[in-house]
Design goal:
- There is one protein chain.
- By secondary structure, the chain is mostly helical.
- It folds into two domains: 1-7 and 47-91, no CATH class; 94-157.
- Helices cover 75% and strands 0% of the residues.
- The mean pLDDT is 87.
Length: 164
């Protein structure tokens, strides 16, 4: 169990470094895509809640250290999303693509709404915040679906070693 948790944490760190170092280059109109959402969905889908919940909390907390204005918000949102995704996946089969797409869409929607609430309470609700939140939702949804497709493709690849 500790090995699985360590592996999930290290993969989370890899996605966190990609988020911090590479994703700002893909920003459109001050909206940076959040590659941690597809990672969060995959982590919660693959691992039990005893492993995934502490891992997503720690990755969210580490991500929040890079954004001091929102310290703690991403850790809380990631934990709430992990519980939501875990609840959504219960009635479906383990490898159901439709269930994973529903989880991707709903987690992006919940993340966008809770981020709007958090930023609005911190800095005030104005029309620019609404437009940025709407743009961030659609951009993150598109990006999450693309990363989700790549992760599904990578999970189906097999390494075959032939000894001749």
């Amino acid at each position: 169990m500790w090995i699985k948790a360590l592996k999930a944490f290290l993969v989370g760190l890899l996605f966190l470094y990609i988020q911090i170092l590479a994703m700002p280059a893909l920003a459109i109109g001050n909206v940076v895509p959040l590659i941690l959402l597809p990672w969060l969905i995959a982590t919660v889908w693959k691992h039990p809640q005893e492993i995934s919940l502490p891992v997503v909390f720690l990755i969210g907390l580490i991500y929040d250290t890079q954004l001091p204005g929102t310290f703690g918000m991403h850790a809380l949102l990631f934990c709430l999303l992990a519980v939501l995704i875990n609840t959504l996946r219960i009635p479906f089969e383990q490898d159901s693509i439709v269930a994973k797409l529903i989880a991707t869409g709903s987690s992006n929607l919940v993340f966008a709404l809770l981020s709007l609430l958090g930023y609005g309470l911190s800095w005030g609700f104005d029309s620019k915040l609404y437009w940025l939140s709407l743009a961030a939702f659609f951009y993150n949804l598109f990006f999450s679906l693309a990363v989700f497709a790549l992760m599904q493709l990578a999970s189906r690849l097999r390494l075959v070693v032939v000894d001749e």
